Each structure stands twice: as structure tokens, then as C-alpha cells.
Amino acid sequence: MRVIVYTGKGGTGKSTISCATAVKAAEQGRDVLVISSDPAHTLMELFEVGVGHRPTKVADHIWAVQVDPVREAREKYGVIQEYVASVFKAKGLDETLAYELASLPNMTSFIALLKVVDYAEEGGYDALILDTVPSGEALKNLYLPSLFGSITRKLLKLAGSLMGAAKLLEPIVGVPAPSREVIRADLSLLEKLERLKDILTDPSTSSLRLVANPDQFSINNMKRAYMSACLYGVNVDLAVVNKVLPRA
Fold this sequence. Notes:
Elements: E1 2-7, H1 14-27, E2 32-36, H2 42-47, E3 56-59, E4 62-66, H3 69-90, H4 95-102, H5 107-122, E5 127-131, H6 136-140, H7 144-161, H8 163-173, H9 180-200, E6 206-212, H10 216-231, E7 236-241
Parallel strand pairs: 1-5, 1-6, 2-4, 2-5, 6-7
Antiparallel strand pairs: 3-4
């Protein structure tokens, strides 16, 4: 399976280029899924078909899905957010602020990247084309498993086996102990990040493509994205400077 991630500042036309890539692949008989986290729901406008949070067939050999990062975070990682928020609230933070601080960083691009794992494991497509803005911060999340390593996994598993003692210590430390459900969710997220890193850092199957407008600000952003990709071992196989019109 081929995985192509398009990134660029808003207004560079990366959604259009993502869809054009999908159309070209479909013309060659390949089944393609376009994944977008664009809150403007650009896929619906480009394909003129309603696109929701489940894959929808929009043309021959082309499916599209609109990722709702808030929904995904709540359904799959809500238990982690609830626990982190409870820790902040135990320390006296306002409830609204506690939930805001407990939100996953770079949630939009982060959740969209994680969807690559879901659809890659499900199979059924020859290519996944991701139309998103994975910033350098989001790419850093790929290396959380490496930073934490097996020691963190062992500590999380140990914490799960010591739940009774942790509950007894709650009044002393002043924060709630994580439940087994929270620990399982943490371990699951680390494992999923590990699989995502394996997918996106495999140059034989995955690549990042940079899209920019012909202006200095956009080009500088492209350079930063390229440096981040190189730093985290993500293959960049194409840079597109869009909206360059021929002279009349």
C-alpha cells in the first residue's frame, strides 16, 4: 500500500493537488482513499459529494473520508483526556481550563495521522492520500514511543498491577490514581504511534509532499516542513510550487 501525505499552509491548493493525485491513481485502476482533516470540508466541494467520517465512494476507484478530530479524540482517547483533566482539577484549576489543557497537542494533524494506521491495517486500498497539515510538532509525536521506550511500557503495566496501593495514596499525593482503563488506553496509544512511525518512515511505501505558493512566506514554511521531515526520518519525494501561471 502506498501512503502519500500532502502538507502546506492554508490556501496553497494542497487539497486540490491531493484529489488530483487520487484521480490520476484511479485512472490507472488503483483504489484510493483520500483522508482529510480540513475543517472547511474541501473534499465535499471538490468531489461534489457528501463526505463524512466514514469512507464514502466519490468516484470510480476513489473513496474519501473527512476526519473529525474532536470526535475521534473523544471516542478513542477520551479516557486519557478525562484523567489528565481530573489531575488538573484536583490541583485547583477551573474545569474548563483543565479540559483545555488536557486536550491532545496538535490534535487535528495528530488524529489525522493516526487514521493512517487504522486504514492501513484495514486494507482494501492501493493508496492512502492524506490531505492535512502535519506540523513539526505533530511529527514529533511519532517519536514518543522511542523517547519513552520499553521502560515506560513496563512502568505503565506495573502501575496497573498496583492499582489498589495507588488508590490508598490518593489522599496523600492529592491527585487521582489512573484507572486500568486509562493505563490500557495509554499503552494502546503508544503502540499505535509506534506502528504509525513504522509506516511513515518507510521510504519504500510512504512519502511526504510539500505544497507552497510562490511567495517567500510560503516557501519558508515549506523549508521548515522539509527540515522537520528530515529530522524525523520522513521521506520527502516531491515539492510543489503551486499557482505559477504562464506569462500571457
